[in-house]
Amino acid sequence: MVDMSTKKSRLTVADVASAANVSKATAARVLGGYGLASETARKAVLEAAERLGYQPNDLARSMSTGRSGLIGVVVGDIENAFFSLAVRGISDTARAAGLNVIISNSSEQITEEREMVSVLLRQRVAGLIVAPTDARQLDHLKSAITSGVPVVTLDRWSPDLPADAVCGDDRASAISVLQHLQGAGHRHVAYVTAMTSRSGRLAAPEDVGISAVRERIEGFLAASDQAGIPPPRQMVFTNATDDAATGRIVDKVLAESPRITALLASDSLVGARLFRALTNRGVRLPRDMSLVSWFDADWTRVTSPQISVVDQPTYLFGQRAAERLIRRLKGDTTEPLRLLIPTPLIDRGTVGPAPRCL
Amino acid sequence: MVDMSTKKSRLTVADVASAANVSKATAARVLGGYGLASETARKAVLEAAERLGYQPNDLARSMSTGRSGLIGVVVGDIENAFFSLAVRGISDTARAAGLNVIISNSSEQITEEREMVSVLLRQRVAGLIVAPTDARQLDHLKSAITSGVPVVTLDRWSPDLPADAVCGDDRASAISVLQHLQGAGHRHVAYVTAMTSRSGRLAAPEDVGISAVRERIEGFLAASDQAGIPPPRQMVFTNATDDAATGRIVDKVLAESPRITALLASDSLVGARLFRALTNRGVRLPRDMSLVSWFDADWTRVTSPQISVVDQPTYLFGQRAAERLIRRLKGDTTEPLRLLIPTPLIDRGTVGPAPRCL
DNA sequence: ACCAGATGTGACACCGGTATCATAAATAAA
DNA sequence: TTTATTTATGATACCGGTGTCACATCTGGT
């Protein structure tokens, strides 16, 4: 906490009131836009406020009304275009409803997420929009809800949490991606994510805290099952957090047997890293390897070939999430709603026929 | 069924105090971490607070102390990686100092910027970090400063504003870019920006509100002058706000005579649009046209050839800006400082020798 | 044992608004 | 004209913390 400024006491309603020769109550009514006031009083007060340069103190207002015009947002990483676009959707919608937005990063770590939620609750935000980093640790969100602060989860979801959720249809899109790949002859597909884990590999979807990723993996298993392909084991590569680590993953992928013929990138950052690692190693897309990335980032249309993507309209995610939250703030107490937003596959140029296995 | 209608009277220090059998004042001292308290009292209060699940109200705290733990940030567009990276730098630094961050978008429009600044001041933010959209309209920032709220400008700067500034060294980097291009034989270079203007073309740097862009143009003029090249007229193309508009600009550029042989993109979004428009039209980089983009976005290393860029380390911009602001909040009243951060040219693959003019 | 200084504690005013209520003035109804 | 209603206004108690101050209690020095 830091000293706010010089002790220069800002103007208050009382100052305006005395300048306008009315009581504090009357000035407050005029300036706050509530209650009654005669035309003469109104004019006098507004004139005085204008002349003195009065600016209301929203802190004080929030204090006495009990409602704050703030909503809190906790995302994994604003730096990621996925989230910054969603945040833009949230901000635009919130602002239109007269709400301000405080944004925090969890860095996809549960301890930071807890901390940020706690800070936001202390700021008495009216509601929260959170992309929970671990679907198995939601107690902080639950207690927010029980203490009366509505929560909307973004991109992620849990049946345990009585909150609205706005998500992509991850299971369905995963299935359609895998079916599309299977149609092109791919039988061994790996999923690469920046999620961290000890071993660098994951087999069971239960081990995945981010629900969106878990659902995709479940989708793959379902699609494999349907196609009569033995469920792939340890098909998830984790820790693709930078170019170096992603390079090592690509090396492992290329050494795998039976040969992996297609890669799925969990988000556009991972997608870009994979693309760079593959092209650096002389792997040609899509001849030697197919690639599909989640999120239609800007860069996916400057490569040649252009990247095939699962298009997640996250601005819309943000809009919808803010809209749900605003409904709740207006008193809607109906059952929590899970809003599934379609995320269609846009097959540009990086899905080709599977190379023949040896 | 959850009863949402319960009046959510949150816990207060008074509640904790009575549960711990001490006075409100003592409980407040313990919980607020100020003043004196005996070990027994402290333990009783903390135990009671823990048991009841007390959470302090930062609004009330800010109200009575006069200091708020919030800083306001106004950027052109969080969606733009340039700013989202800077915002991350700001957030990380601010958080480490116990400050929270409210982020707003101005959409590079002065009316919105004014509105956002006003909203933030009403929230009684302790300080502001702003990327002012028009160096000629700064009255709202000036009045913030005179009313005691310190301001740091980000990426932009004006001699009229008594505020710290953290900027790239736009003039110098523009000169070095142009000299580099001149060394490769380029004499006719166009600058393309998403800034909007009526005519679509600009000649005079005075017409440019965004100081960073103005300084670059001044740098070009200086570099041209130095090289004995007649100062280019109307070398700035505006309104490159989307792919369609950028395509039209590229058409105009290609029709220009004498032939324009190099393009400069004002930011990475414009850069991506130019790249797409050029490759769509079959223009080969760098054989037919050279391209340099400001900001080293992720996508600049997935194209072939990779894009030559002016590297603006905006995370650092954000960090430095937050650090300056925190110093001010701690009471530093020395002269405003303008911090210039080097933005070196990274010449990857899109600068080639100028094609011979006909 | 006695007083100085340090330590602990509670009562209460304050921050800048909002909201309630009683009263005063203006208007309508009887 | 009198009473009932509406409209306008000011006094004042909040909201949930902080911070001042007076008083009480506990040291310790001589």
From TrEMBL, chains A, B:
UniProt KW Repressor keyword: yes
Domain HTH lacI-type: 11-65
Record flagged with keyword Transcription: yes
Record keywords, A-Z: DNA-binding, Repressor, Transcription, Transcription regulation
Pfam families attached to this UniProt entry: LacI, Peripla_BP_3
CDD domains given in the database record: HTH_LacI, PBP1_LacI_sugar_binding-like
The species this protein was found in: Pseudooceanicola sediminis
Example GO molecular function: DNA-binding transcription factor activity
Name under which the protein is recorded: LacI family transcriptional regulator
